[in-house]
């Protein structure tokens, strides 16, 4: 099966955008390699029976998206993008032109905009001076430590169990945790399907990274024990509560077994709990089981709303000074204005109200997925923002993602999350449930269900 060149009958209006999408799908599927020279505008127009203007608009669209580059006198070339820069989420520049199921975000509706507007109005009437004028983190952020610990207790973290650093979200917390727990050249181990930025970030920090085998609960204790017998492991990075791409939640016994191994081998644990208390009936976090060695972080961008970029990093007490210094060197401090809003929402109950609303909205969307994908195996968590959809043979990830895109749905290929060495062990796609309005999500899931029940044949491109 080939995607490129397309059948002219498969092009839909607006034709230039349909042509651009098919070319983009061919590039993502590997049919057109980075550095390849594309046909001239006139040549492609002739082959497809289109006007030169239509082809020119399609090429211009891809230039705007950074996928191809036009060189005067030489032609149009596909950009040779480094693999590490590829993100799992779709980077469509025209919002609404595709059903977005590739980016992990909570459900957003009018309740969130209203809450933000009310918070800004209240701040305008009562703005603390430190929000405007303070350069010192200890002065500007001290007031927010108490509400931060209130929120962490909802996450299962014991108050005062370590040093607390307020950050501008989970990414900043993750970076500081790795920089503090490890030194250049140290070995970090993680689940073989993990966070899509972990590979790049550890590389930038000069750390070695190895992915370990998992089952339905997450990382296998015997795999961790085995690598400890071969190498000195400095840190274990985990996403144990539904956040990982395979949507698995680690049980209490598995967590206890990993803690025992970490204590024997003096391994530091980095726990990514970005969803926080979003999942009901969750086991205690590693930060509660082993506070003496766990770097724990969570935030509001997933559990509450993307625009409230505030994060909470808890580090073992002996590392508090080191972590604070690394945060100062890389970020200086969390933004006081955002920290002020987060603190007020924790104190007046808005944060919990929005959390419960989000939990119900995502539970409903998971029920919708179960309905539409009935009979198709997939993995999910009760209030999770995504499902993991294993691909039936003969689908490959690239082919399925490309076909889904051509049908107007963006999903994330499993290879984007690969930390281990076997790209075929977990062949599938991550389908996110929060970004679109419910009717659009329903339409997108119906398209994906149809694809799963079909064969990857060229005729599908014209549907």
Structural description of this entry:
This protein has helices at residues 15-28, 41-48, 52-64, 110-125, 129-133, 137-140, 145-154, 170-181, 198-204, 221-228, 252-264, 286-289, 320-330, 336-348, 350-372, 397-406, 438-452; strands at residues 68-71, 75-78, 99-100, 163-167, 187-191, 208-212, 214-215, 218-219, 233-238, 268-272, 294-299, 311-315, 386-390, 409-410, 412-413, 428-432. It is globular, with a radius of gyration of 24 Å. A seven-stranded mixed sheet has the order 4-12-11-10-9-5-6, with helices on both faces. A three-stranded antiparallel sheet has the order 13-16-15, with helices on one face. The chain has a two-stranded antiparallel ribbon with strand order 1-2. Strand 10, helix 12 and strand 11 (294-299) form a beta-alpha-beta unit. The two termini are 16 Å apart. With 463 residues, it is of the alpha/beta class. The chain is built from 17 helices and 16 strands. Helix 1 (15-28) packs antiparallel against helix 16, helix 2 (41-48) packs across helix 3 and helix 7 (145-154) crosses helix 14.
Could you list some keywords that capture this structure?
7-stranded mixed beta sheet, globular, alpha/beta, 463 residues, disordered C terminus
In a few lines, what is going on in this structure?
Residues 459-463 have low confidence and may be disordered. By secondary structure, this protein is α/β, with parallel strands linked by helices. The chain is built from 17 helices and 16 strands.
């Amino acid at each position: 099966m080939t995607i490129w060149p397309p059948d002219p009958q498969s092009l839909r209006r607006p034709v230039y955008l349909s042509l651009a999408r098919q070319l983009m799908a061919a590039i993502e599927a590997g049919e057109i390699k980075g550095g390849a020279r594309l046909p001239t505008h006139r040549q492609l127009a002739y082959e497809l029976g289109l006007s030169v203007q239509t082809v020119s608009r399609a090429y211009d669209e891809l230039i705007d998206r950074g996928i191809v580059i036009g060189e005067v006198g030489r032609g149009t070339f596909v950009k040779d993008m480094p693999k590490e820069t590829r993100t799992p989420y779709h980077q469509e520049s025209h919002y609404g032109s595709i059903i977005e199921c590739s980016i992990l975000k909570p459900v957003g509706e009018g309740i969130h905009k209203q809450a933000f507007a009310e918070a800004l109005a209240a701040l305008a009437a009562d703005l603390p001076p430190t929000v405007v004028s303070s350069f010192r983190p200890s002065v500007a952020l001290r007031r927010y430590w108490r509400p931060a610990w209130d929120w962490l207790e909802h996450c299962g973290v014991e108050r005062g169990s370590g040093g607390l650093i307020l950050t501008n979200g989970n990414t900043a917390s993750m970076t500081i945790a790795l920089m503090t727990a490890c030194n250049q050249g140290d070995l970090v181990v993680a689940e073989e399907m993990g966070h899509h930025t972990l590979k790049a970030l550890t590389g930038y920090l000069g750390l070695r990274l190895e992915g370990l085998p998992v089952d339905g609960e997450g990382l296998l204790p015997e795999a961790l024990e085995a690598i400890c017998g071969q190498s000195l492991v400095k840190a274990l990075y985990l996403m144990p509560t539904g956040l990982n791409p395979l949507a698995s939640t680690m049980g209490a016994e598995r967590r206890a077994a990993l803690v025992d191994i970490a204590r024997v081998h003096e391994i530091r644990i980095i726990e990514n709990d970005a969803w926080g208390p979003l999942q009901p009936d969750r086991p205690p976090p590693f930060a509660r089981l082993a506070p003496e060695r766990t770097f724990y972080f969570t935030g509001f961008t997933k559990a509450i709303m993307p625009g409230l970029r505030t994060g909470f990093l808890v580090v073992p007490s002996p590392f508090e000074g080191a972590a604070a210094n690394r945060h100062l060197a890389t970020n200086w401090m969390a933004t006081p204005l955002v920290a002020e809003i987060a603190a007020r929402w924790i104190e007046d109950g808005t944060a919990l109200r929005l959390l419960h609303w989000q939990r119900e909205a995502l539970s409903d969307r998971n029920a919708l997925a179960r309905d539409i994908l009935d009979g198709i195996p997939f993995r999910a968590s009760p209030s999770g923002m995504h499902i993991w959809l294993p691909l039936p043979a003969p689908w490959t990830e690239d082919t399925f993602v490309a076909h889904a895109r051509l049908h107007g749905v963006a999903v994330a290929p499993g290879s984007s999350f690969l930390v281990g060495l076997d790209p075929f062990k977990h062949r599938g796609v991550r389908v996110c449930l929060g970004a679109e309005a419910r009717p659009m999500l329903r339409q997108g899931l119906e398209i994906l269900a149809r694809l799963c029940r079909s064969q990857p044949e060229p005729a599908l491109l014209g549907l």
